[in-house]
């Protein structure tokens, strides 16, 4: 009887059984590992029996993924911090126009407390800006639009950048209010300085031409015209000197000689200097100040210049019979000075601009001076670490305040 086929069959059966058993064991191990992946992915073993290589590879992959996720989270945190600190507003909208993200600046600029989930039109609420966003969505190109919001006196510029992959868009909103204001100041400065220079230059030209035409030999007209020329030249010299002083103060080239100074002494000194000018204008000028006020940290000559400028301003715009009062009182860590007058007052729309170079309220065009006194005063006060402002009501007078820190 030949047993060889039976031996071969038995051997094959044994091998098949062994492989079946190994398959069963490996499958059970893999199923158990899969269950661990689903239930406790944060605590996966890396050395499971029978599947050490697989578990070790997955553990390494998990560690790499965790590191990448941590790095991504760190980048997102930094990006979120940057967006939160940006002064420009940032909106991110999806393809349907729903806002998915808005930084604090965008919420402030559009006065929207909770824009997330709302449409771009609801958040922006300006047809020009909405049309710019729609054009960008339709053309899939960058769009820019600038608008003025008269009710809020703001100038905004919107830049819409389409997302060519997801179909959404990025909206960047810039507040150009300060830039436009600086442009207005620049234009006004050029206009004002041109006006200030044109008048004395035209006068000088007319006077010199008159003298050239024979008036210089006239014993009466010659000296009178020469005197007027000297007056105009002095005015131009004063303007140039004040512009130079203002430029030096703004650039920090003027060093203040700081020392303890009594507020009462400062007011008395300024009042004495301007007393004669006030009397000529038939105005009453006096100072009210307590003697026990704390000393201030100041350059006496510079602060006296501030008071003289303010008093001179009040003299120009107060009718004869009026009154100018100098006051000082203790504040929180400072002494507050005030120059009050019973003059014509300042329109409310001009109050925020009276400290600009050459800026004048329209009615003062016929007055004397260069229009630089208040600007110089502002810079001197700020160089002392203080602040200056004005309060006024038309026809009821004005009050100029400034505060100087105590010694």
In words, what does this structure look like?
With 407 residues, the chain is an alpha+beta fold. The protein has 4 domains: 78 residues, no CATH class; 90 residues, Beta-Lactamase (2-Layer Sandwich); 70 residues, Helix Hairpins, CATH 1.10.287; 147 residues, Heat Shock Protein 90 (2-Layer Sandwich), CATH 3.30.565.10. It contains 11 helices and 12 strands. The strands form 3 sheets. The chain has a 5-stranded antiparallel sheet with strand order 2-1-5-4-3, sandwiched between helices. A hairpin with a 5-residue loop joins strand 11 and strand 12. It is elongated and about 160 Å long. The N and C termini lie far apart (126 Å). About 1% of the residues have low confidence.
How many H/I helices?
A: 11
- What is the second-level CATH architecture of the largest domain? 2-Layer Sandwich
What fraction of the residues are assigned to beta strands by DSSP? 15-25%
According to CATH, the fold-level topology of the largest domain is: Heat Shock Protein 90
The total number of structural domains is 4
Rg value: 40 Å
Class computed from helices, strands and strand pairing: alpha+beta
The overall average pLDDT, rounded, is 83
CATH superfamily of the largest domain: Histidine kinase-like ATPase, C-terminal domain
Spatial gap, N to C terminus: 126 Å
Tell me how many strands there are: 12
CATH class category of the largest domain: Alpha Beta
Low-pLDDT sequence parts? 363-367
Question: How would you spell out the order of helices and strands?
Answer: HHEEHHHEEEHHEHEEHEEHHEE
Give the spatial strand order of the biggest sheet.
2-1-5-4-3
- Level of helix content? 40-55%
């Amino acid at each position: 009887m030949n047993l060889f086929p039976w031996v071969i069959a038995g051997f094959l059966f044994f091998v098949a059984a062994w492989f079946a058993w190994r398959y069963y064991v490996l499958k059970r191990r893999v199923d158990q590992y899969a269950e661990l992946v689903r239930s406790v992915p944060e605590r996966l073993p890396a050395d499971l029996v029978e599947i050490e290589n697989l578990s070790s590879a997955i553990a390494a992959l998990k560690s790499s993924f965790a590191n990448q996720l941590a790095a991504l989270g760190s980048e997102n945190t930094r990006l979120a911090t940057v967006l939160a600190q940006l002064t420009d507003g940032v909106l991110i909208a999806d393809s349907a126009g729903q806002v998915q993200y808005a930084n604090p600046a965008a919420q402030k600029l559009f006065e929207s407390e909770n824009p997330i989930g709302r449409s771009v039109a609801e958040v922006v609420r300006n047809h020009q800006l909405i049309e710019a966003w729609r054009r960008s969505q339709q053309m899939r190109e960058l769009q820019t639009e600038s608008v003025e919001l008269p009710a809020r006196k703001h100038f905004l510029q919107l830049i819409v950048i389409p997302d060519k992959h997801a179909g959404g868009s990025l909206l960047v909103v810039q507040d150009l209010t300060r830039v436009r204001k600086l442009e207005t100041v620049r234009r006004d400065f050029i206009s004002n300085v041109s006006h200030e220079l044109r008048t004395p230059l035209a006068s000088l030209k007319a006077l010199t031409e008159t003298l050239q035409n024979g008036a210089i030999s006239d014993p009466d007209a010659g000296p009178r015209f020469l005197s007027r020329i000297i007056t105009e030249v002095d005015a131009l010299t004063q303007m140039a000197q004040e512009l130079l002083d203002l430029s030096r103060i703004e650039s920090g080239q003027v060093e203040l000689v700081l020392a303890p100074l009594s507020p009462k002494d400062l007011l008395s000194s300024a009042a004495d200097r301007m007393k004669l000018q006030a009397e000529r204008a038939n105005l009453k000028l006096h100072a009210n100040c307590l003697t026990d006020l704390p000393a201030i940290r100041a350059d006496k000559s510079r602060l006296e210049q501030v008071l003289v400028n303010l008093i001179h301003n009040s003299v120009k715009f107060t009718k004869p019979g009026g009154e100018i009062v100098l006051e000082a009182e203790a504040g929180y860590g400072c002494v507050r000075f005030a120059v009050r007058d019973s003059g014509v007052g300042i329109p409310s729309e001009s109050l925020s601009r009276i400290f600009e170079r050459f800026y004048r309220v329209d009615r003062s065009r016929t007055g004397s001076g260069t229009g630089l006194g208040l600007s110089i005063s502002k810079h001197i006060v700020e160089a002392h670490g203080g602040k200056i402002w004005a309060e006024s009501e038309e026809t009821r007078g004005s009050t100029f305040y400034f505060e100087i820190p105590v010694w």
